[in-house]
Structures
1.
Amino acid sequence: MTARGLPVEAGDRPMIDLLMPARSERLGSVPATAPPVVYPASVESGAHAIATPRAPDYVPVEEAAARLALTPMALRARCRRAARREGRRVVAHLGADVIAYKFGRSWRVHFPKCAT
């Protein structure tokens, strides 16, 4: 009899053991220093091996100021005046879905995908 009360005959294993091998059997063949398995991406589908979420595109103040036809000093002043705390972040909504985020002492600006 097994721990679950299933009968075991000589040489036979219960169905549960056939579906899920014992922990020692699963981990016994994998060395502790084995590298992680990375499966190759399919070339036909164009899929990535591991789907990772993309981080928002943040632009430095100097580049954002040029796109907004402002000086960097004026853009920093606008960010400072429009700054609001949202949870643990400091965010400045500058209009037209343009948002500035404060990282430490510097600002980074996020433009919507349609505005380039």
2.
Amino acid sequence: MKIHPLALLACLAAIALLAPSPAEAGCRCAVAVHTTQPSTGTWGLGSDCTAAHNDLINNLNGLIDCGDEVECSVTFVQKTACFFDTMKGMWREDGVYNYRCIICFGPFEPQTNPGQ
């Protein structure tokens, strides 16, 4: 089978255009921001505001979902200041995490979590 030189050149050009350049290859923080439970938020409960905040952070840590990748930017957003929840009989704080995930181009895979 004989391939016309122009067809071969067109194929090579297409491959070169679709493949990431060496400057683009590697891993970086994505632009897209995700939010843990954006509509309702998450809450933490405790015997005081410090305990409620620590419980909230523990609950939020389990909600970050970057699939097989890792998070690279995490920001805590308090939705409700600490208050005494009379229905629960405990102090409560509400909040969310805004976070971004590592994305990779080329043959590289993330080895560490640069955000930590």
